C-alpha cells in the first residue's frame, strides 16, 4: 500500500484516477470493513486503485486536543490493518488543511482536482467540510455535476447495536471485550516498541515488556489475560496491565505485559498485545508484598482464561 502524507501531485492527472473512501477509520471495525470491501470491489470493477482518505489528527482530536477521544488505533496500527485489506493507497492529509473548506471547495479541489476521484464510497452517516455542512445529498449532487459516482454503505450492526468507533470505545472502557471483539471482528490489541522500564518487575519475579502507549487517552485500563505477537511464530500467552502503577508512584499510563515462560531480552522489538479477557481494575496496594501476592493470582487467572 502506497502512503501519501500530502495530496500527491501525480493525482492531478486523469491517468491517476482512483476510487476513494473517506473517513477516520479508527479501529478499522466491521462497519469500516464493509465500506472498504465496497471500495476494493469498485476499484477492481473500474480498473482503478482503491484509495482510503483519512486525516491527522482525526477531527475530534483536532477540536479537543487537551481531551481527545481514546484512540483505538495509532497511525501505524491503522496503516497495518488497511494494508492487510488490499487497499492500494492511503492518503493521509493534515486535517487543518481542509477544516475550513466549504462542501463545494472540498469536492472540487480536494476530491476531483487533487485526487482525480472517479467514485466515492462513504458510510450512511458521512459528513464533511467546515462545520460538517456537507452531507450525502450535497455529495451526490456534486458527483452528478462533476462526473464521479457515489456509493453509500449502510451501517453494520452487532447484536442489534450499530457498530461505530464510539461504541467500541464504550465497550472497552466498560471492560466488555466480548462486545468489542464482536464489533472489531478480532481481539482488541495495541502495538508498540518495548522500552526500558525501572526493572522492578524482574526483581519481583515478574519481568515485563514495557510499551509506551503514545496516546493521551487509553481505550482500556486494568489487568488482562493477553497474548503477545511479534516475538515467535505464534502469539505468546501472558498477563498485561494498562495503568499508571499507583503502588510505585507512577503517573503516566503504561502498557506492561508479563509473558509466561519467556526470558529473552526484547528491548526495541515491536510487539502487539491482544487483550483477551479483563481480569480486574488497577489497584493501589499498601506494600510490595501485597502487590506480588495479587500478581500471583492474576497470573493464575490469566492462564486459566487463555486455556479456556
Keywords:
308 residues; Rossmann fold; Elongation Factor Tu (Ef-tu), domain 3; 2 domains; six-stranded parallel sheet; elongated
The average pLDDT value, as a whole number, equals 93
Proportion of beta-strand residues: 25-35%
Choose one word for the global shape. Answer: elongated
For the terminal residues, how far apart are their CA atoms?
37 Å
Helix content: 25-40%
Number of DSSP helical runs: 9
How is this structure best described in words?
The protein has 308 residues and is α/β, with parallel strands linked by helices. It has helices spanning 30-46, 59-63, 75-83, 103-114, 136-146, 165-173, 177-184, 200-203, 288-307, and strands at residues 2-4, 18-22, 50-56, 89-94, 117-123, 149-153, 157-158, 161-162, 189-195, 209-211, 222-229, 236-243, 254-259, 270-280. It has two domains: 2-158, HUPs (Rossmann fold, 3-Layer(aba) Sandwich); 187-307, Riboflavin kinase-like (Elongation Factor Tu (Ef-tu), domain 3). It contains nine helices and 14 strands. A hairpin with a 6-residue loop joins strand 11 and strand 12. The chain starts with a strand and ends with a helix.
Chart the SSEs and their pairings.
Layout: E1 2-4, E2 18-22, H1 30-46, E3 50-56, H2 59-63, H3 75-83, E4 89-94, H4 103-114, E5 117-123, H5 136-146, E6 149-153, E7 157-158, E8 161-162, H6 165-173, H7 177-184, E9 189-195, H8 200-203, E10 209-211, E11 222-229, E12 236-243, E13 254-259, E14 270-280, H9 288-307
Parallel strand pairs: 1-4, 2-3, 2-5, 3-4, 5-6
Antiparallel strand pairs: 7-8, 9-10, 9-14, 10-13, 11-12, 11-14, 12-13
Amino acid at each position: 500500500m502506497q502512503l501519501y502524507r500530502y495530496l500527491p501531485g501525480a493525482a492531478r492527472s486523469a491517468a491517476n484516477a482512483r476510487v476513494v473512501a473517506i473517513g477516520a477509520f479508527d479501529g478499522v471495525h466491521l462497519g469500516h470493513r464493509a465500506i472498504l470491501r465496497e471500495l476494493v470491489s469498485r476499484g477492481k470493477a473500474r480498473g482503478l486503485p482503491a484509495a482510503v482518505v483519512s486525516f491527522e489528527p482525526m477531527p475530534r482530536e483536532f477540536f479537543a486536543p487537551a481531551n481527545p477521544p481514546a484512540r483505538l488505533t495509532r497511525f501505524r496500527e491503522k496503516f497495518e490493518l488497511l494494508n492487510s485489506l488490499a487497499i492500494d493507497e492511503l492518503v493521509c492529509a493534515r486535517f487543518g488543511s481542509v477544516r475550513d473548506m466549504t462542501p463545494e471547495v472540498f469536492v472540487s479541489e480536494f476530491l476531483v482536482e487533487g485526487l482525480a476521484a472517479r467514485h466515492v464510497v462513504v458510510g450512511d452517516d458521512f459528513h464533511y467540510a467546515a462545520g460538517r455542512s456537507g452531507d450525502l445529498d450535497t455529495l451526490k449532487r456534486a458527483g452528478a455535476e462533476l462526473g464521479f459516482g457515489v456509493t453509500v454503505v449502510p451501517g453494520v450492526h452487532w447484536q442489534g447495536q450499530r457498530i461505530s468507533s464510539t461504541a467500541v470505545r464504550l465497550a472497552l472502557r466498560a471492560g466488555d471485550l466480548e462486545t468489542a471483539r464482536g464489533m472489531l471482528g478480532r481481539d482488541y490489541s495495541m502495538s508498540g516498541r518495548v522500552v526500558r522500564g525501572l526493572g522492578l518487575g524482574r526483581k519481583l519475579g515478574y519481568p515485563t515488556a514495557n510499551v509506551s502507549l503514545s496516546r493521551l487517552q487509553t481505550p482500556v485500563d486494568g489487568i488482562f489475560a493477553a497474548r503477545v505477537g511479534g516475538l515467535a511464530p505464534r502469539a505468546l500467552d501472558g498477563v498485561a496491565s494498562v495503568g499508571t502503577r499507583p503502588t510505585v508512584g507512577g503517573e503516566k499510563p503504561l502498557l506492561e505485559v508479563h509473558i509466561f515462560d519467556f526470558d529473552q531480552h526484547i528491548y526495541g522489538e515491536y510487539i502487539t498485545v491482544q487483550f483477551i479477557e479483563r481480569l480486574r481494575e488497577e489497584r493501589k496496594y499498601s506494600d510490595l508484598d501485597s502487590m506480588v501476592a495479587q500478581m500471583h493470582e492474576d497470573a493464575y487467572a490469566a492462564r486459566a482464561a487463555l486455556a479456556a
